[in-house]
Amino acid sequence: MMGALLSLLNQTLLNPMLPSIMADTHVDATTAQWLASGFTLVNAIVIAITAFLMDRFTTRKLFISSFVLFLIGSILGAWGPNFGVLLAGRLLQAICGGVMIPMTMTILLLFYPAKKRGSAMGMFSLVIMVAPAIGPALSGVVTDSLGWHMLFALMAVLAVVILVTAIAFLQNAGETKPVTLDKPSLLFCSFGLLFLLYGFSQLGHVETVALGVVLVVVGAVTLFFFTRRQLHMEQPFLEIGVLKNKRFLLGTIVLMILQASLASLALTLPLYIQTVRGMSATTSGLVMIPGAIFGAIAGYFSGRLYDKFGPYKVTIVGIVLLGVGSLMCVFFDMTTPVLFISASFAVRNVGLMLANTPLTTWSISKLSDKVLHHGNAVSNTLRQVAATLFIAIMISIMSLVTSVSEKHGNPQAELFGITATFIVSLGIVVVALVVVIVSMRGSRNQGSAKEVESAALDLNAAMKSNPYTINATDTLDNAIRSFLQYQTSGLPIIEDDGRIVGFISDGDVMRFMEKHNVSLAAENLAMVMPDTEGFDAKASSLMKQSVMDIGTRRVITAPHDASLQDVCEIFATRRMHKLPVSDHGILVGTISRGDVMRVLMQRLDQHFLK
Prior knowledge:
By secondary structure, the chain is mostly helical. It is about 70% helix and about 5% strand. Helix 17 links the parallel strand 1 and strand 2. Helix 12 packs parallel to helix 14.
């Protein structure tokens, strides 16, 4: 995880120091954006072949080799006599970044048993959220005080520490296989994306528009041949056949749009702060910290919100927030307060992270375990490609609008160019919202069931006053035997004094026994790793668990003086099938949907007899 943290930290350092690099190397924004788009392009290609690399080489050899490249790249960046050397160093760093995240996840899942994987991945999620929080601020402070060369020197020092640690302690995980890499596919993919990226970058200057169009066409044709080759191979370089799954395709498209919107703003925002407003790199970095922190918090809770409300509502809220943040950016001018700038970036980040996990989980949920890793590779590769291409497109738009607006003066012209990118970013968020509304409509949580009329129905007429229960000290073995013996689907968990402390249902057992695929979504990646633990192993582990380990501790109860209409509302809104009835925390009975139906039928019969 140290390696993953450093590679992600390095990835977030660039944006605040980009204006300083442009000034020192005497390049414009169109050229400088290659430090970002070139990085993500190489990152995308390496992510696509990571499965091959992990099959072909031991984890120890792959880790050490990747960090050797990272070290060389950092040294080149620290030296950086010109833009070409700096770009070469940045691309070497990107190779390490593309390998590190998937490999770290795989190692964690191999070393940790299934019941501890959730904790392991939670710890890993925390690590990958730390980098965006501290990276921009660190970059800004060091750039202003020591210069951007020192940032690369710092990365080199940290890389040496990690290399020495890895050589001393890192062990191999998994086994290697005699697999081969399809070299034509690698060439088609690499050159197709390169032509496409370079072509888009040339569209920002009137004199190179024709060249840009030609390169975009060549790149598109090359990628067409790459796609056709993948569809006809038994072991494709990238299993793009998973895109035939409509849900996965739509989810991936939305994730690509969101990633493109995020990447473009992360690059243009420092240009606005430093070039247009004349503020420091430190300010540029500090502006991004609240967004990173609140985004990390939103990412942490997004999985829980997904479980509670479903994918549709959480995703819609996330994209709407992303749109609100983008709209705030459109109003940036020469006097916009720093707090407003920071708030707009924070709202965007919260929205992105809220939408990421639900979209990733929803889109990949229909893929089988056999192709799940291919789905991860395709999704993350396409997200990186979208970010790469959109950075080039946005910089081209910015350059074109700036050049057309030069009559208004340099800072004002640059403001017009950056505002144009914010407007385009807002536009693609709106497109994403429309796609989600259309594609995820069937995933909405259903509304409340029709409430039962007549609030006068008596709870006592329906509930069982001598319910079956289970003690808090019992095991799941006792609970399952009780389910079968009493022919019930749920039991209140009580202490010796009759106080309710939990509720255990057959649904809780099913959730324990189901596949617990691990979902991880962050700003620049989204992955789902399959749970491979067998049924017998889970069953054996289940029987040893306490009912309090599996059951629900925060019990929803019906007060003993509630009406049946109140109970019906709980059943409908909470989607429950059985409720404990309590009197000041002491169990006095249980009521189920069937009990309500029985009383309702009795009342209906009485009505018709009259």
